[in-house]
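In this section we walk through a basic example: taking a raw amino acid sequence and producing a predicted 3D structure, encoded as discrete structure tokens. The instruction is simple. Fold the sequence below.
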Amino acid sequence: MRRVTGGADGPAGGWRPTRRPGPPGHQVTAGEGPAPITVIGVSERSCGPDGSFIVRVSLPNDAKYDVTVADPAVEGDEERLAWYFEEHLRFPFLDQDWDDDAVRRLRAYGQRLFDQVFGGDAAGDYQMLARQGFDGCRLQVQGTAAFHRLHWEALYDPQLPDPAVLRLPVTRRVDLPLPGFTLPPEWPTLNILVAS
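The resulting token sequence is shown next.
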């Protein structure tokens, strides 16, 4: 087997960037490896008595906004969306009227959710990222299982030609309750005699 080494252009076949380690917080630039990921955080802070959530929206410039998010579904949404995501894929050419209704409901659901999260104080910072095309961004949703019932992938910005999830991937993190450490109850001493 012959070992091929590169000349002035780097490894055989062309130039390849090398990644040099840097201090913590070091920004990786072009030629050093992949671009840094910008995380837009949507984290559940608490749940209200009416089922709404107090949510912290964290943006890359250290801006943090607390917003209230209620379930954006209206009557019939969950049933139609369940049909669309679970049943419709089996026979996608049937029930075109239900399909159209589900698409319309999904867009309206996503826009109501978007307006609650990014329609208030966070709008300016969000718009700045949108103008950059969400290059290197992702949306990280973190909270309890009840918070994850919301269809975060349906977020719909009416200013964008395509659904936001096509430019802004969604990742989810579930907050699990911490298990308590309990000691077993004391048992009376059991003496065993083994004879052979």
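Looking at the output, two observations stand out. The helical segments are 77-87, 96-118, 123-131. The longest strand covers residues 38-47. In the next section we compare this with other chains.
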